[in-house]
Amino acid sequence: MNRWKIATLILAVVAVVFAVMLSQTMFASPTKVVNDAITYINKNLLQAGTTAKLSSIDKERFTVQKITLDVSGQKFASYVSLDGKYLFAQEPVDMKGAAAANANASSQPEMQQKASTDVEGGFKEITDPSVTVCQEKNVPIVYFFGSSTCPHCKWEEPILKSVIEQFGSAISYHENIDSQTDIDIFNKYSPGSVPTLVVGCKYYRNGSGEQQGEAAEKVALIKVICRATGNLPANLCQ
Length: 238
Hints:
The protein is 37% helix and 20% strand. The protein is α+β, with helices and mostly antiparallel strands and 238 residues long. The chain folds into 3 domains: 1-60, no CATH class; 62-105, no CATH class; 110-229, 3-Layer(aba) Sandwich (Glutaredoxin). The strands form 2 sheets. Strands 4, 5, 6, 7, 8, 9 and 10 form a 7-stranded mixed beta sheet that branches. A 3-stranded antiparallel beta sheet has the order 1-2-3, with no helix packed on it. Strand 4 and strand 5 (124-126) form a beta hairpin. The radius of gyration is 26 Å and the shape is elongated. The protein starts with a helix and ends in a 9-residue tail after the last helix.
């Protein structure tokens, strides 16, 4: 075999080895991919107290091509499977990028790092003596942070409002739906999730009270707000 053929053979072997090594580094095992996805969903997409678990893994696997669409001058990224079967109309979640961003950020919001204890309805009471009840016009402030696209917020909002009305002038209510108002308070008590409720700055909860039901949620809200008001009004805070 002449030198040219030997060199060609060596290059071919090197190319095959490189391709195998590349495929091993680019593609993780299906089990790891699925486990990473479930971990990401539980940490970042579901409200507190709710978890997703694996039901089944479909054997179908496919690759996708990223495309950019121009709709009336606005550009949107979409993905289509190379077999022409599936269209992913929205930008996918970058789990690795999000994990890197989270690693660079503080592990917990400022107030969640302070000593606390569990009270009614899944609320936390901050026991750190440096945190006192925040007031506006000499009454505690109740903050509600939510989004118009959040189903848990839509469930919580009318229940909270019905309770707030019972307290009348005993509290000051700040409702923030899709709003940057009071964002400094939000960032201190929430990792970015909604709904978030902050009562008098000493009590907070990330998530809704759906799991305990409407009646129990109303009772819990009244008790927590009464803690912040010093049991006022007396006719409501028994």
